Amino acid sequence: MSGNNPTEIQRKIILDGIALLKRQKYYKQATIVYKLRYLNCNTSEATLSNIINGKYVGEETIVKVLKGVQTLIERELGLFFEDGGFISKTEAKKWEPEEIPSLSINEPSLVQKPGFAYNEEGRVSISQKKSLLAEAQHEIIEFGLTLRTYSSHFFSRNDSEFYTPVSHLLERGVNIKCYLLSPESNEARLYFEDRKRVLKEEGKGSEVIKQSIEKLRKVQARFNEEGYKGQFEIYTYKHIPYNYFMVVDGAHQQGKMIISHYIYGELRAKCPVVEFDRKHNPSLFRRYMTSLQYLTRDAQLIK
Length: 303
What we know:
17% strand, elongated
């Protein structure tokens, strides 16, 4: 292996990274491949084996896998490649470990291409959500119906699981906006009256929204006491709800979005989820952002 060959140097970094992941995380090679897929590095076990065994792999693929391995190590181990090795940087004191989900290409409920993933089983896990939130640089929008699950995360989870990562975003200057259906509106009355014909518990929807708002206001007060640069805001809207949105940096090129359409007669937690980004899906992203803008333009800020 020639130290002067850029491709071989990159291969060596990949080998060191894989060895590190196996040593510290006890990952099998297949697990590493599945995690790389989640990071939009769509590779195969055969390709990774070829890299490890010194067989021919195209330069573009080498670069893609190298970037994926380095990102995985940065996010799960807090180590960065520098001066010939993976090291911990002193300025990364506030780093917190992230568990990158494994995305098996054989998983029947998932369809994925770069920048797009579909999960027919429903709501994403909290670890997946945290991974997406961690990438925010400017704004996060949480637009739902009752936001019961979201608001409950701040109270039912350890602070380190949800509250602390969110507070770090606010500390960095990221603004967070939460949107719920106005519980006293005619739209809420009509919606829940219709829903409870199939799901009786939906008849209490307006009360659930009020409980979520109360929880979010308590969280907001706690954030305000800290004096973070970013704002945590709560809004109510008056429209018949069609779907859930979670949008990260929607006005920017790196924007990402999670969508879940509400299916009549089905629990919202079981409605299929679509995740996509602006870079690879600009037309789709634009259509959903336009819808979100219509839904939120008359929303009322809760003070």
